[in-house]
Design the sequence.
């Protein structure tokens, strides 16, 4: 069971650090910085407020860097209105929606447009559902392709995903819509990817997949984890920055355990 305490403010220089405190049955303290600059501190149930504030102050410079980084990120897109002319991003490229009244249902990318042919182009809910399903289907296909490429790339580093690709009908990843993450890896090795990641370029998708595959060796963000990631992808920081700065999606929180 989690217990969320009230909001805390502690002085730091000429400013204050404001954070929400959440107690839970965990062994270590974690600090999360979210895209809206908010801070959540997750602490062990028995931790004192004095020890928590001391650790927050100790990580104040890191917190400031994460907030500054989020200031540079592209803002989240507003909810889709599904009207002609609206912009959609797919594999790093921008497409304009074009609704076409037709006797058949069909969606395609054509000459810089996302063309949606449907008998009911003015049925917003139907169009929205059709577009969402199309993007999800494309995400499944593209992520499967990139996953197969990435598992070969990490194999020389003794990373074997036992839930990995077996045949044309299975894949080592699953789709899960997440509001604060591009991907995640569970303790038992299941990897989830946010279907919204299909908006990014393939090299950025590869970065997310390889990041999660590295968690099979190191289920944390320790120095060892980042050394492994840098060995496989020396330009991972550039890929991460391009992903977060260029793709207008909900962004994952930065956290430090």
Sequence:
């Amino acid at each position: 069971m989690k217990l969320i305490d009230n909001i805390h403010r502690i002085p730091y220089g000429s400013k204050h650090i404001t954070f929400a405190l959440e107690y839970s049955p965990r062994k270590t303290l974690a600090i999360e910085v979210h895209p809206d600059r908010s801070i959540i501190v997750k602490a062990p149930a028995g931790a004192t407020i004095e020890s928590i504030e001391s650790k927050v102050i100790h990580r104040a410079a890191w917190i400031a860097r994460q907030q500054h980084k989020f200031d540079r990120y592209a803002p989240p897109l507003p909810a889709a209105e599904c009207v002609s002319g609206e912009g959609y991003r797919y594999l790093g490229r921008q497409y304009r929606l074009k609704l076409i009244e037709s006797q058949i249902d069909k969606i395609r990318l054509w000459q810089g447009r996302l063309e949606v042919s449907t008998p009911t182009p003015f049925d917003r809910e139907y169009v929205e559902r059709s577009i969402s399903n199309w993007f999800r289907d494309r995400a499944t296909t593209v992520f499967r392709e990139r996953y197969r490429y990435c598992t070969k790339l990490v194999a020389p580093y003794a990373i074997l995903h036992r839930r990995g690709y077996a045949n044309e009908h299975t894949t080592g990843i699953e789709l899960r819509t997440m509001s604060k993450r591009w991907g995640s890896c569970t303790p038992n090795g299941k990897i989830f990817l946010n279907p919204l990641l299909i908006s990014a370029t393939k090299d950025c998708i590869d970065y997310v997949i390889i990041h999660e595959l590295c968690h099979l060796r190191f289920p944390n963000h320790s120095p060892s984890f980042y050394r492994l990631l840098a060995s496989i992808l020396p330009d991972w920081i550039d890929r991460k920055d391009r992903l977060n700065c260029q793709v207008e999606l909900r962004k994952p929180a930065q956290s430090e355990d």
Observations:
- The CA atoms of residues 150 and 229 lie 12 Å apart.
- The chain has two domains: 3-72, 137-256.
- The two ends are 19 Å apart (CA to CA).
